[in-house]
Amino acid sequence: MTPTREDERPDPEDSAHTVASLWALRACEVLCVLMFSTAIPWQRVTTWFGVIAALGVLRWWHVNRPWFRASPKPARQRVYRIYMWVLMTYVGSACWFLYVPANLPIQAVLMSYLLGNATLVAVRLTGDVMRTTIALVLAVLPTSLRFIVEGTLDQHNLLVMMGVGGLLMTVTMVFLSRAQESNVKHQVEQRRRAEAAANAVAAMGLSKSRFFAAVSHDLRQPVHAIGLHLDLLMRRGQAAQDRASRRALDGIHQSWRALDDLLSQVLDLTRMDSGAVQADLRPTELAPLVADLVMQHSAVAEAAGVRVVALVRPAAFAMADALMLARVLSNLLDNAIKFSPAGATVAIVLRGARGQWRLQVRDAGMGIPHVAQERIFEEFVQIDNEARDRRRGLGLGLAIARRFALLMEGDISVRSRPGQGCCMTVSLSRAAPPTPAASIAPAHAGAAVDSGPAELGVPPHEEPWPPSVLPLRDVLLVEDDSLVAAATRQLLRSWGLRVRHVETADDALREGAHARADVAICDARLPHGGSGLDVALALRMRGKKVLLISGETNAVLREAAQFHEVQLLTKPVSGPTLLAALQAL
Ligand code: ADP
């Protein structure tokens, strides 16, 4: 709901009526009682000021009750106004009760008192011209008019001047209030515009996420199909083809890998931005994880002539998702090696800091200029690669790494000077070593799903083919995308399987009732809103083994598959992964 000007205005009483200001007002009133008592019977003065003090205390007590503070703002404002009208009307009555004809000093005290009161109210109401005017008129006008009417310019000109002063003061306050009101209006308008702009940006972000989710799903289908065809082609034709064809095939394969890599990274970002990725935080020992990484990168480091050393003490545990942390460190190590000159050393160092572990990846490379140090964590930002040379990376690694670090409730930062190398630091909370029972569980013990290379973590690599021996004969393929279906069918046939292909959920259930298929491979999203998971569950009830393949970045589907213990692969799925999954069934 858009805020109204009324909502924007602060509660007049919230800050104004502190205990100190309450007692300061009471002290003023006692002083006034003393002064007026020199000219008017003290009983009248005390009663008049007593009523004012009682009203003030009553209001203070009332507006400080917890139930009053908890009431809605419009109701509170109404109560404040009632108190104010009552008080101002009563203050205005001073022109009868405290008026002493011909006693000019006392009249001056009266005028000062009234103006003081009016100023207080005007200060609180400034910004609301109508209410300020009414309040001032109620409090000051009766006495000002009486001064003017009863004073005559030759005898009581001081009285007349006081009356005119009162009127001028009223008018000034009204103008002040009007200026303030336009200021408040301006502020409200500005806030409204800022809110509208923020909403528009949020809506754009959401539609961008949706757009990427849709695009990446649709991109995955052909990439998945090309990969399957390619695997088949490479396996079949390696021996037979001439050198030129093999080189062309290798080129296609490399391009497919690059496309797969880009798609995987964009998908990782999309998944994280849409909240589909969650960290599985467990006490993770850092030394073995780092040792594994160093080993994995040893070939690349050797080729670049870079030495990698790890200085990580054993038995240091951090709260982390092992896969995510490996992915983060792998990216940092990749960069450190990539940007180091031959003969340099890259060090992974563990440091302790209040309740945290800091894993630093240090290199002696070209470093990063200060102005670019935050930008490198943004998507597609690379320094000195305006031509976007793909061989120098995609510029997504650190964007993903930072998101992973944040998901693990940690952070990642950079310290660097151009020409003097770079130190990337991943900060994570310390954890106590896990109890022996918990440590038996693998890092993702709960997962009944196979994340596949497009899921977290595993950077694309050449997968070895498992021996294509399958204890199966017949496969029911439920896939509506003709390209994917054709590629999968061919690949399955190359493994000696008989394939029955259907496109819809109804056909799958009908076929499943009598076909002899041992295994059903189901696409997760079927035509006419059909759910691959429902089909898989129904077929499993009929004694078939099921494998679900999804092109979606959808956490709900993953959780549902996990819950029902259905194996889920995420597209693009390579030939070796599919073969291994079928063997595991
Ligand atoms: P990529 O390495 O794929 O280009 P990243 O997101 O990992 O993408 O890195 C973004 C950019 O940050 C790199 O292109 C490079 O310019 C800079 N960068 C990252 N790490 C280092 C490093 N260790 N030394 C120098 N520059 C680096």
From TrEMBL:
<dbReference type="Pfam" id="PF02518">
    <property type="entry name" value="HATPase_c"/>
</dbReference>
<feature type="transmembrane region" description="Helical">
    <location>
        <begin position="132"/>
        <end position="149"/>
    </location>
</feature>
<dbReference type="InterPro" id="IPR003594">
    <property type="entry name" value="HATPase_dom"/>
</dbReference>
<keyword id="KW-0597">Phosphoprotein</keyword>
<dbReference type="InterPro" id="IPR001789">
    <property type="entry name" value="Sig_transdc_resp-reg_receiver"/>
</dbReference>
<feature type="transmembrane region" description="Helical">
    <location>
        <begin position="155"/>
        <end position="176"/>
    </location>
</feature>
<protein>
    <recommendedName>
        <fullName>histidine kinase</fullName>
        <ecNumber>2.7.13.3</ecNumber>
    </recommendedName>
</protein>
<feature type="domain" description="Response regulatory">
    <location>
        <begin position="474"/>
        <end position="585"/>
    </location>
</feature>
<dbReference type="InterPro" id="IPR004358">
    <property type="entry name" value="Sig_transdc_His_kin-like_C"/>
</dbReference>
<keyword id="KW-0472">Membrane</keyword>
<dbReference type="InterPro" id="IPR036890">
    <property type="entry name" value="HATPase_C_sf"/>
</dbReference>
<feature type="modified residue" description="4-aspartylphosphate">
    <location>
        <position position="523"/>
    </location>
</feature>
<dbReference type="GO" id="GO:0000155">
    <property type="term" value="F:phosphorelay sensor kinase activity"/>
</dbReference>
<dbReference type="InterPro" id="IPR036097">
    <property type="entry name" value="HisK_dim/P_sf"/>
</dbReference>
<feature type="domain" description="Histidine kinase">
    <location>
        <begin position="214"/>
        <end position="432"/>
    </location>
</feature>
<dbReference type="Pfam" id="PF00072">
    <property type="entry name" value="Response_reg"/>
</dbReference>
<dbReference type="InterPro" id="IPR005467">
    <property type="entry name" value="His_kinase_dom"/>
</dbReference>
<keyword id="KW-1133">Transmembrane helix</keyword>
<dbReference type="Pfam" id="PF00512">
    <property type="entry name" value="HisKA"/>
</dbReference>
<keyword id="KW-0812">Transmembrane</keyword>
<dbReference type="InterPro" id="IPR003661">
    <property type="entry name" value="HisK_dim/P_dom"/>
</dbReference>
<feature type="transmembrane region" description="Helical">
    <location>
        <begin position="82"/>
        <end position="100"/>
    </location>
</feature>
<dbReference type="InterPro" id="IPR011006">
    <property type="entry name" value="CheY-like_superfamily"/>
</dbReference>
<feature type="transmembrane region" description="Helical">
    <location>
        <begin position="45"/>
        <end position="61"/>
    </location>
</feature>
